């Protein structure tokens, strides 16, 4: 991770991969904008007025990167973000994504040239802009040749409609194959990977983090609070918070053993008390100290949540506090990683 220091506020800025682009350590995810969708409506339902207020708060705090996707509420998130940034597009970096099905049309899905070209044009129109600072492939498409996809991304970059490219939810070999193909043909390499990472889910450290370190790929972290589980509201012996994403059945990933979660949250509360911070701020600050993390994507349903999350910068956990959180969040490692790390003299873990 490249640390550039602080601006006039407490926000930190880091270089995104090898792009030279400076991004705020905290970015804002707009999956909560809109909500006219059975699944994404459970994330949040911010209308234009509320969304504009959240964008205002982000800009005032030094956040310069806003992340969205075409599939978020069928394009409504992009439309609202574009409207909220109207007249100040130059103050923000916009990241959007495409891969998943947007309609019942046969080819309205995946990474074919046909779909990606249409997706970018649709996103530009909804966002009210003529370029995307970052265009991310939202998931891996095993039915489209990698060179076909990368050739299309090269055309989009050459046209000026896309400035940087990235991927999301790829496995290690998916990402490495794409990087190799791009290098071989002289096409733009992925600048960033958007990845799920938190104290509750640390699989990133097994392969994707070492790969990113080796290839200088930045990491945009999504789900940093594991759908609110690390907010401090999920406690042993208490009911699941009403209205939370977990309560509504919108949590992502496999189930987590209750005892593991509650023991982790107990430690979060202890560290939060020691630092005078909230559990969310502690969990986010832990992420900001991990290798390859360029920016952590915040999601917030309201102003209160956003203000609290923005307080994750401007301070750091102590090495002892980080070590305690590392220990309590450690999970069994699958093969071949446990074998490789057993040969630590030549295969060191990316983090302790």
Q: What's the Cα radius of gyration?
A: 20 Å
CATH H-level superfamily: NADP-dependent oxidoreductase domain
Distance between the termini: 16 Å
Identify the strand order in the major beta sheet.
4-5-6-7-8-9-10-11
List the helices and strands and how they pair.
Elements: E1 3-6, E2 12-15, E3 22-24, E4 26-29, H1 48-61, E5 65-67, H2 76-84, E6 93-98, H3 113-127, E7 132-137, H4 146-158, E8 162-168, H5 172-185, E9 192-196, H6 208-215, E10 218-222, H7 258-275, H8 279-288, E11 293-298, H9 303-310, H10 319-329, H11 337-342
Parallel strand pairs: 4-5, 4-11, 5-6, 6-7, 7-8, 8-9, 9-10, 10-11
Antiparallel strand pairs: 1-2, 2-3
Helix pairs in contact: 1-2, 1-9, 2-3, 3-4, 7-8, 7-10
Write a structural description.
The chain has 352 residues and is of the alpha/beta class. It has helices spanning 48-61, 76-84, 113-127, 146-158, 172-185, 208-215, 258-275, 279-288, 303-310, 319-329, 337-342; strands at 3-6, 12-15, 22-24, 26-29, 65-67, 93-98, 132-137, 162-168, 192-196, 218-222, 293-298. It has one domain (3-342): TIM Barrel (Alpha-Beta Barrel), CATH 3.20.20. Strands 4-5-6-7-8-9-10-11 form an eight-stranded parallel barrel, surrounded by five helices.
Q: What is this structure, in a nutshell?
A:
With 352 residues, the protein is α/β, with parallel strands linked by helices. It has helices spanning 48-61, 76-84, 113-127, 146-158, 172-185, 208-215, 258-275, 279-288, 303-310, 319-329, 337-342, and strands at residues 3-6, 12-15, 22-24, 26-29, 65-67, 93-98, 132-137, 162-168, 192-196, 218-222, 293-298.
């Amino acid at each position: 991770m490249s640390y550039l220091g602080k601006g006039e506020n407490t926000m930190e800025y880091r270089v995104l991969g090898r792009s030279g682009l400076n991004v705020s350590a905290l970015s804002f995810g707009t999956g909560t904008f809109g909500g006219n969708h059975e699944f994404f409506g459970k994330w949040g339902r911010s209308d234009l007025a509320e969304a504009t207020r959240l964008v205002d708060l982000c800009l005032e705090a030094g956040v310069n990167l806003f992340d969205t996707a075409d599939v978020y509420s069928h394009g409504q998130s992009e439309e609202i973000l574009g409207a909220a940034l109207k007249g100040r597009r130059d103050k923000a970096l916009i990241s959007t994504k495409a891969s998943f099905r947007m309609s019942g049309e046969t080819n309205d899905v995946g990474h074919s040239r046909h779909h990606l070209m249409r997706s970018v044009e649709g996103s530009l129109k909804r966002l009210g802009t003529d370029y995307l600072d970052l265009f991310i492939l939202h998931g891996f498409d095993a039915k489209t040749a990698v060179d076909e996809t990368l050739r299309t991304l090269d055309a989009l970059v050459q046209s000026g409609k896309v400035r940087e490219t990235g991927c999301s939810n790829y496995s290690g070999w998916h990402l490495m194959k794409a990087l190799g193909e791009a290098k071989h043909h002289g096409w733009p390499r992925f600048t960033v990977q958007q990845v799920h990472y938190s104290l509750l889910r640390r699989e990133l450290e097994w392969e994707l983090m070492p790969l990113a370190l080796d290839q200088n790929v930045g990491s945009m972290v999504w789900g940093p609070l594991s759908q609110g589980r690390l907010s401090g509201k999920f406690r042993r012996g208490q009911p699941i918070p009403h209205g939370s994403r977990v309560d509504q059945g919108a949590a992502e990933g496999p189930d987590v053993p209750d005892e593991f979660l509650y023991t982790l949250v107990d430690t979060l509360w202890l560290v939060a008390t020691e630092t005078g911070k909230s559990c969310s701020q502690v969990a986010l600050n832990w992420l900001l100290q991990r290798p390859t993390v360029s920016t952590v994507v915040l999601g917030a349903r309201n102003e209160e949540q956003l203000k609290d999350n923005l307080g994750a910068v401007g301070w750091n956990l102590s090495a002892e506090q980080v070590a305690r959180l590392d220990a309590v969040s450690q999970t069994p490692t699958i093969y071949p990683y446990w074998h490789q790390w057993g040969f630590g003299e030549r295969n060191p873990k990316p983090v302790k």
